[in-house]
Specification:
mainly alpha; about 80% helix
């Protein structure tokens, strides 16, 4: 169940950030990490999932210059839920 929830959160973040990929280097970095994460989840590669989790753990610092925009705040909420689900996956 956690994998499907994680995929849903990934898709939500991608939907929020993809329109800004050409305007923000940070958005491209997050989207690239999410692509790698989706691949790792499809293969259930827990080592790679942990690596991507480490990279995504600093997402709030990457988003700092853009705080206050509704889509950024919503993406941060989805990222928190995503990290919670990923923790469940790698602990099992």
């Amino acid at each position: 169940m956690s994998v499907s929830v994680a995929m849903h959160e990934i898709e939500a973040i991608e939907g929020l950030l993809s329109p800004y990929v050409y305007y923000s280097y940070e958005a491209e970095r997050v989207l690239a990490a999410l692509r790698e994460l989706k691949d790792a989840l499809n293969k259930m590669d827990k080592h790679r999932i942990r690596q991507v989790m480490e990279g995504l753990s600093n997402i709030e610092s990457m988003a700092a210059p853009y705080r206050g925009y509704d889509f950024v705040e919503e993406a941060l909420e989805h990222s928190k839920r995503l990290l919670d689900e990923l923790r469940k996956i790698v602990e099992v």
